[in-house]
Amino acid sequence: MANTNGVQYGFGQYGSIHVRGTDAVSMVLGNRVFVAIQFLEDTKFNTGAAGLTPADAQLFPSSETGVSSDISANGVTTDNEVFPKGVTIYGRWTGFQLASGGVIAYIGA
Known about the structure:
CATH class: Mainly Beta
Order of helices and strands: HEEEEEEEE
Strand content: 25-35%
Shape: globular
Distance between the termini: 22 Å
Largest sheet: 6 strands, antiparallel
Helix content: under 10%
């Protein structure tokens, strides 16, 4: 079996960033995306379009209005959701903006 980095890169091996504050964060490095977000304290995403922006529509949680705002078929969005300290969510997001809290966002392919 050949040794490949494909799996590792898909799981955050391109590094991570620590985010605290309400500035919008976006991924601008080629085909890179955020693949996991770990919550360092109880955290809420901004309710606007930059809240949690999916790389692929209708597959991952998003607060982006009019596009992929469903977490489940029940139409739950990240608006007003509090993600508790210690939780990690996985997916593929091109950007996000916090309303409160702090996270570590892991970068993958």
